[in-house]
């Protein structure tokens, strides 16, 4: 029997760009990874405002959105500090917070584990696991930058939401896939979501987008 893959934790905060987190979850599930989701209260509000999700029916909405994928989905309420992912003894590959608000970034940088998302991130740091943050804010002031520098020195991967245009994107989905593809590169997960640079000419993106 094939051994089940270790899962990934995906956190979604109240920063704009929740679609990045949703697309990442889709791709991970499509590749058969178990995915543990944590969404902040502000994150649910943004999902409602940007994607039209019904925050009043959270688990139902998640089930409808992600059913049918090979990977298994686990939803953890932000206040459930006793969830599996709050413990270092629970084995996962790592965690991505996408998009990551400056408030959450600050909490992670300063070890303030006051909810499940920041506790799970703290677990990644103390266990030496992969932790990726995707900040989405502009402009940035000195405190933002100092917190990012502190995290970078701890080995956290920072992948700001900065889509490229060298591959001549045609749709918003192309830009979303570029960002998610850069996250997957950092996780060492193979994909073909975006067109890679190849000797001064971008190769064609596969028609299936996966």
UniProtKB/TrEMBL annotation:
EC number(s) stated in the UniProt entry for this protein: 2.5.1.129
Residue ranges constituting the Flavoprotein domain according to the UniProt record: 8-186
Matching InterPro entries: Flavin_trans-like, Flavoprotein, UbiX-like
Keyword terms: Flavoprotein, FMN, Prenyltransferase, Transferase
Enzyme class: transferase
Molecular functions per Gene Ontology: carboxy-lyase activity; flavin prenyltransferase activity
Binding site for FMN: 14-16, 40, 101-104, 136
Highest taxon above the source species: Bacteria
Catalytic activity: dimethylallyl phosphate + FMNH2 = prenylated FMNH2 + phosphate
This protein's record includes keyword Membrane: no
UniProt-annotated binding residues for dimethylallyl phosphate: 166, 182
Family statement drawn from the similarity comment of this UniProt entry: Belongs to the UbiX/PAD1 family.
Primary role: Flavin prenyltransferase that catalyzes the synthesis of the prenylated FMN cofactor (prenyl-FMN) for 4-hydroxy-3-polyprenylbenzoic acid decarboxylase UbiD. The prenyltransferase is metal-independent and links a dimethylallyl moiety from dimethylallyl monophosphate (DMAP) to the flavin N5 and C6 atoms of FMN.
Protein name per its UniProtKB record: Flavin prenyltransferase UbiX
Native species: Paenibacillus mangrovi
Gene: ubiX
């Amino acid at each position: 029997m094939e051994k089940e893959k270790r899962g990934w934790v995906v956190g979604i905060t109240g920063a704009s760009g929740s679609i990045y987190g949703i697309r990442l979850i889709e791709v991970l599930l499509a590749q058969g990874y178990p995915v543990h989701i944590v969404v902040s209260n502000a994150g649910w509000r943004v999902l409602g405002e940007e994607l039209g999700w019904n925050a009043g029916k959270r688990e139902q909405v998640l089930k409808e959105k992600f059913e049918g994928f090979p990977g298994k989905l686990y939803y953890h309420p932000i206040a459930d500090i006793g969830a599996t992912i709050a413990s270092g003894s629970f084995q996962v590959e790592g965690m991505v917070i996408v998009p990551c608000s400056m408030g959450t970034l600050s909490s992670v940088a300063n070890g303030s584990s006051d909810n499940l998302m920041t506790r799970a991130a703290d677990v990644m740091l103390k266990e030496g696991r992969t932790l990726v943050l995707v900040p989405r804010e502009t402009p940035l002031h000195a405190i933002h930058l100092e917190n990012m520098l502190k995290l970078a020195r701890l080995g956290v991967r920072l992948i700001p939401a900065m889509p490229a245009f060298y591959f001549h994107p045609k749709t918003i989905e192309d830009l979303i896939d570029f960002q998610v593809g850069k996250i997957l590169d950092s996780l060492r997960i193979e994909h073909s979501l975006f067109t890679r640079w190849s000797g001064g000419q971008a190769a064609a993106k596969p028609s299936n987008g996966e």
